Amino acid sequence: MSSSPTLIFMVIFFLESLAAMLQNGFMVTVLGREWVRRRTLPAGDMIVASLAASRFCLHGVAILNNLLIFFGFHFIRDYYNTLWHFVNTLTLWLTAWLAVFYCVKVAVFSHPVFFWLKWRISRLVPRLLLGSLVLVGLTVISSAIVTGILKQMIASKSSQGNSTWAERVQAFYRSFHPFDVMLMWSVPFLLFLVSMLLLVFSLCRHLGLMRNYRQDPCDPSTRVHTMALKSLVFFLVFYTSYFLSLVVVAIEITNFQSHWYWAWEVVTYASICLHSSMLVLRSPKLRKVLMTRLWKALDKG
User: Fold this and answer.
1) Residue 288 in contact with residue 262, Cβ under 8 Å?
2) How many whole angstroms separate alpha carbon 14 and alpha carbon 262?
3) Which of 150, 179, 244, 281 matches a 20 to 30 Å C-alpha distance to 144?
């Protein structure tokens, strides 16, 4: 039987994941319907729709994977781990492209490369999304094939009695696999981190110029930049904690038998759940649809 803290964290995790799936499903429905109706979508909304779809799948796979492990179906864990790695890596890339898009559109720098990106970024978005999908797919498939070959070699050598060689191969696999996974995650995270830091630096410099001109702190432009800066710092801290939690899981510090596993799952997925809420609330289009549906539901009630 599970202890009370384990049950509490399990319930929080499932409620958190279901709430995130509802939020991301709402974004996919609204933006996807507009995409189909108009046969086009702004570049930023295109990234948000793709990111919401990947996060919806990520939370769904996480719920299913944890349920299978909890009820003892460990023999199919590797298949769902491969699927989870694919969706999670794709989510990291899409989050990085969203940060790059906002950085290029909002930040102000005088470098010629930055001007070229500002002019071309909207046209590059479909290619970036498709390229990320292909790159992540090829990387995860190749990693899964290597993992399968190594496991078959370990099993065949163990059955033949050559346990020493099998132990060496297994030790190599355990040391190689975490670094391979961390490399797949680190590249998009560094891209995200650089973009967010450049955007924060640009907004801080803009606020400094406003203060030098003695602009009123209650001015709408100043308030908008201050709120944007606070939300960026908030998301930067939470998404960094999400990446660090993934690193901790990759090097297998946590143990599933411990009740702290479920607490760690709650912390791990909290940041992307909160960011999905921020995307809904900060988008005028999504917020308008949400408020309209809420008012209709209240009227019917």
Assistant:
1) no
2) 10
3) 244
